[in-house]
Amino acid sequence: MNDLPPDVSRLRILETWLQITLTRVREQIALAEQRAAQQRRAIPPPPPDWVVQLSVGSEGQPVAVHVGGCRSAGRRSRPVNRDQAMRALSDGVEACVLCRPDTELGML
Predict the structure, then answer these.
(1) Which residues pair with 95 in a beta bridge?
(2) Which of 34, 43, 98, 39 has its CA nearest to residue 65?
(3) Reduced to 3 states, what is the DSSP secondary structure of residue 75?
C-alpha cells in the first residue's frame, strides 16, 4: 500500500515541503538547545550577608535579623549590610535563634 502520489510533480512538491519542515524542526531544536544551555549556565546570585525580616502590614517593621540564606527569614525580608544588621540588633530587633546573626556579627 503506497500512500505517496504516483506523479513526479506532486512528489517534488512533497519533497520541498518536507525539506522546509525539516529545516524548521532543526531550527527549533537549535533554539531549544540554546535555551537549555543558558539555563544550565544560569547561576543564582549569592544570598546577601544579612537580611531583616519584616512584619506583616503596610509599614513592614523589622521583626528579626538573619544571616543571609537563612530559610526562616521568609519572603517578607530585605537585604541589609553589616552595619544596618548590627544597628537593628542594638535597637532591640530580635536575632534569629536558628542562624544566630548576633554571634556571627560578634555581638555576643
Answers:
(1) 65
(2) 98
(3) coil
In Å, how far are 3, 71, 88 from 93, measured between CA atoms? 78, 18, 5
- To the question of pTM greater than 0.70 for the whole model, the response is no
Closest by alpha carbon to 85, among 75, 73, 74? 73
pLDDT string in tens for the chain (108-residue length):
478 999 999 999 999 999 999 999 999 999 999 999 998 888 888 889 999 999 988 788 999 999 999 999 988 999 999 999 999 999 999 999 999 999 999 887
Report helix, strand or coil for 43: coil
Residue 16 vs residues 5, 10, 43, 75: alpha-carbon distances, Å: 14, 10, 43, 55
